[in-house]
Every structure is written in structure tokens, then in C-alpha cells.
Amino acid sequence: MSDGMSVAVVGATGVVGTEAVALLEERGFPVGSLRLMASGRSAGETIGFRGKDVTIEALAGADFAGIDLIFSAPGASVSLEYVPRAVAAGALVIDKSSAFRMAPDVPLVVPEVNGDAASRETRIIASPNCSTIPLVMVLDPLHRRFGIRRVVVSTYQAVSGAGQKAGDELIGQTVAILNRRPMPIEVFPHQIAFNCLPQVETFDPGLEGYSTEEQKVCDETRKIMGIPDLRITATCVRVPVVNGHSESVNIEFESPVDPAEARKLLDPMPGIRIVDSPAQGEYPMAVEASGLDEVLVGRIRRDFSVDNGLNLWLACDNIRKGAALNAIQIAERVFGIDPVRS
Amino acid sequence: MSDGMSVAVVGATGVVGTEAVALLEERGFPVGSLRLMASGRSAGETIGFRGKDVTIEALAGADFAGIDLIFSAPGASVSLEYVPRAVAAGALVIDKSSAFRMAPDVPLVVPEVNGDAASRETRIIASPNCSTIPLVMVLDPLHRRFGIRRVVVSTYQAVSGAGQKAGDELIGQTVAILNRRPMPIEVFPHQIAFNCLPQVETFDPGLEGYSTEEQKVCDETRKIMGIPDLRITATCVRVPVVNGHSESVNIEFESPVDPAEARKLLDPMPGIRIVDSPAQGEYPMAVEASGLDEVLVGRIRRDFSVDNGLNLWLACDNIRKGAALNAIQIAERVFGIDPVRS
Known about the structure:
The structure is a homodimer. Chain A is of the alpha/beta class. Chain A has 2 domains: 5-127 and 323-335, Rossmann fold (3-Layer(aba) Sandwich); 132-162 and 195-318, Dihydrodipicolinate Reductase, domain 2. Chain A contains 9 helices and 13 strands. Chain A has helices at residues 15-26, 76-88, 111-114, 132-146, 164-178, 212-225, 259-266, 286-289, 320-335; strands at residues 5-10, 31-38, 46-49, 52-58, 69-72, 92-95, 124-126, 148-156, 232-235, 245-253, 272-274, 295-303, 309-316. Chain A has a 7-stranded mixed β-sheet with strand order 3-4-2-1-5-6-7, with helices on both faces. In chain A, strands 9-8-10-13-12-11 form a 6-stranded mixed β-sheet. The longest helix of chain A has 16 residues, at 320-335. Chain A is globular, with a radius of gyration of 20 Å. The interface between A and B is large, with 59 and 59 residues.
């Protein structure tokens, strides 16, 4: 490896980290050298990149000198601890965790929405929550044209967002139920197979009945769109889907809005694909969004219960655009890199 | 069998019909004689009732003379055809299909909400859609106290509502995916296993992008609550859950409303059980609602995006209270029968 940047992926063995390594290769990111870091447990394992095995280093005690760019996807507590050291050593960190997202001096970026906010100067750029990213990609263009008055969103979130063990648990529980055997319940608070859990992440006493995920969707949407007082409320629900988040979105606008007009406005937006012929069975679905770069948007229709209202439905690969892809797109934007489309 | 009413169950082999037969026994309904009717294909089969096998008759050509009460759970087209004949022969029909629900002279009844509308005089009483029933049970008491201004509901509907073959398809697809085999897609328009489908029933050109299910939820809620201009909008979604519908409900009220006040108001309501300690992992879930008579209600919290707003989450056995149980409770109400609780 020569020419190009010195890149590291932290949390390389996780669902998002693994996807980030694959996307760096798929998009021809100018990686001169690649270092992979994870917890000590994974140190010594290897991950393939451009036909070669890259050995995983332990994050603890890692020397960050010489690293230009870090794609960071560990838990928030790990990010809080190591990112300042990496930045002090000269790295630009694009962090997927929630650790720095709401810090006033850290830009929280979805390139299609507020790409101008991304800059090498801050040294830390945060990538939003996997439910927030597809939502703001749809809300922002609509807001610019029609002015959003209020948003009510209910999510249908896949288990992949909760990590590899969560996927194993969904499958393990499913197999156990089909075979009438006792099922493991470890990652999620209750059975997730053939069930819906109105809990994503945790309930903090200060959040007045909202989960941390619900709070993030609202806070992060406001920050990315630059509307601190945006009226938005969320209900976040885990569903027995392996990969791909869906969202039911109700929007009230300042100006009159026609579904056909909204469709026409969203259709050419980068990163959005309209799938909206419900009578022909065409609408966004998690299993079709999974593996795609685009946010699928459909079921766009007038909400007759309010002036200037719309309902719509979206689906998005929460690991790809909802996490790893968005981080890499931030880097492409900051460094002026054109991706190679595979 | 002697003493008691001459009762028939039409559509007796379906998911709802089977549950109705079981509930008649479980609740000690005063059945003097029981006739079971279904399509010709099932004629001659038997279903157990109070320890004896009852033989299924073909509905086509059945003689309804002498039947006091029919629990009717076939498809709407079948109901449309046979119900007038049954009524002409003297039966009171409680019909679960959508055939007569919106007919002005047919009461559409959830006993806890508008039980007074049920009467033997109309000869046909309609039981609402499985998504509508739990929703109105929650909305009605809240409306009486705080006055509802607008409702936004997103559903998470189990496959059992689509019949026995739908349950088989979810399980069949799940097994096929786990074994990496081709999967059957026959009942639903797309893969339902590990997926969410923003389609319940069909899309009619006249409904401006809404599914027939979404239209029913709105129209039926207005009729049952007696508020023809109630502002309500719905997004109905099928999820890979075997049994038990969940709903994310956002409500804007005329008067200020406190979550604790709403909880206290709903708690003693018949047919409602508050499950609302999210920090302790206690909230309504489809797998816990399944098999229960009550609608589980929780995640009750203030919606800060609007004056006088609440969000809540409910779960309900869509085959039981959402269908068969509600029909039997209508009969109990009309005939003044106290159920025997098992």
C-alpha cells in the first residue's frame, strides 16, 4: 500500500466496522495504509482488504501517530476515551458513536443535508444515529420547499443496529421457537423473534418516558437541519427484521403540499430513490433496502387530518447509509474524493 | 344440548371462527344447540365443543330456520350474500366481516365504547376491524375527558389477521430463509418473514394512496365514537409477528393532559390493562397480549411537539378482542349474559 491516506478503522470487528472496511474497498477510497483496531479480544484476528489479510490491533495502547483518518465505530464510552488521544496525535476522526454528536463544536453530518458543516478543522466529525439519517434526508428537501411545522415518526428498526449478537439472538430465538425449545434472551430485554419491542436502547429517568433512541432522533434531526426548535416526536420500535430500518413519517407543513409535488422534489435528490406504486405492490421494504446505498421513499400521500399534511414510508440499510456509508461519504466530502461506483 | 340459544358459527374453520367456538365454551355462553358452517370444502369435518364433535355443514344452501344467533366470520363477499337470507329466516347476525360495517342502519359496536348502539332490532350488528377495536377502546375514554383534536396512528400488525394460510406462510418463509431455500410467496404480496410490508389489504384507486385497511381504521373509528369529522390518519403495516397487533398512537387533545392523568383514567376501564413501567422493561408487547382478553396500553408520555399531546403504544390479541371475543361480547351485551370467567 502506497500513495493515499493512512486510514484506520476502530471497532473493525463490529457490524458497522466490517461494513466500513468493505465499503472502503468497494468505493475505491484512496487508502495508502489500513490499520484495524478493536478490543483486545479480537487482536490478532484478520480481515480481508483488497485481497490481503489485515491483522487487527488492540485499541488499548495503540499509537495513533501517522494516521490521517479514523473511521470510528465502537461504543460511545470507548469513543469518549480514545478519540481525544487520536485527535491529539493528529488524526481526523469520523465517529459513528453517540459520544460527540451533540457537542456544540462537533459537526453532525449527513453529506446530502449539511455537507458544508463537515470540515477537517474540527478534527472530530460525528455521524448520526441510524434512524436519524434516512429521516433527515427526506425531511430536509421537503422543509426547504414547504416549511415543516411538525413531524411524528414511528420506527420499525432491524436488529442489526444492535450489533452482531443481536442478529444471532433473533435467529437463535426464531429457531428455538420453531423447534419448541427454550429461547435465549440476552441482548434484548424480551423476546424479539415474532414480536415488536417498543424499546430501542434505554429509558433514562430524565427523558420523561422517552427512550434514548427516541431522544436522539429528535435532537439529532434538529441539529443536522439547523432548526433547534423543530417540532418532532418519535416512537422507536424494534421489529424482528435482520437488516433495514423502516419509518412511518407524518409531516405537517407551513405551505400547501401535493403528494405528486413532494415525489417530484425528492426523486432527483442524491441518495434517495422513490418507490411509490402501491397498487402495483411497489413501496419501500427493509429487505429491498438492505444492501442499497439509497434511502427508499414511498407511500407518499396526503394526510387529510390536518392542513398541508403528508404521510410517507421509508426504508434504509441502517448499517450502510445509516452508519458505515454515511461516515465514508463524510470523508469523501471532506477530502474531495469521488467514489468509484462498483 | 338443551336450554339456551340456538347458535351458529359461520366461517367456523377460519382463524376467527375457531376462536369463536373456543370462546363460546370458555365463557359459558348459553348455547342450547350449536351449528357450524363453512365452505363446502370443509363440510363433514368436525370441531370439538364441550367435549363433543360438531360436524361442519356447507354454508351454501344451509337452512337458517330456528337459529337465534349467528357469529359470522367469513369473507365480506360471503357475508353480503348469505346474511340477508339468515336474517330473513329470523337469525340475529353478529358479523365480523367488513360487509355491513359502514351501512348507516347497521350498528358497529365495541361494547366498552358504544355498547348501547347494539340492539336486537337491527338483526345485523357489525364487529369492527381488528386494528380499530383496540384503538377506539383507548381513544374513547380519553376523548370524553380531554377532547381529541387529531390522531396519527401507525400499526404493527400480526399475520394471523390475514388467516391461517398467512401464519403458515410466515413460518414457511422463515424456515426457508434459515435453510437458504427458495421461499413461498402466495398470501402476501412480498416476503413477510424478517420484513415489514406497508400494505395491509389492498390499494383502491379511489383511496388516494391509502390501503383499504387504513381507510377502515379511520372510517370505523369515526362511526364507533360517533364523531363523523374526527381528524385521524393511519399507516397500516404488516410485521413478521404470528399473533397480536401493536399500534403507535399519537393524540392531540383540546385540553391539557398529563400522562399520569391519562394512565389513571384508562386503568379502571373494562378491557384495558395498563403496562407502563418502561424503565423496568414493562410495556405492551404482541407476544404478551396474545391470548389475553385485554388491550395492553403503555409508553404513555407527553408529546412535546404540540400543545396537549400524548404518545402511547398498545398491543392486543387481534383474533380475540380484535375479532372473536368482541363479537361474543356484543352478544353477551345484547342478551344480558354474564360470561363465566375461566
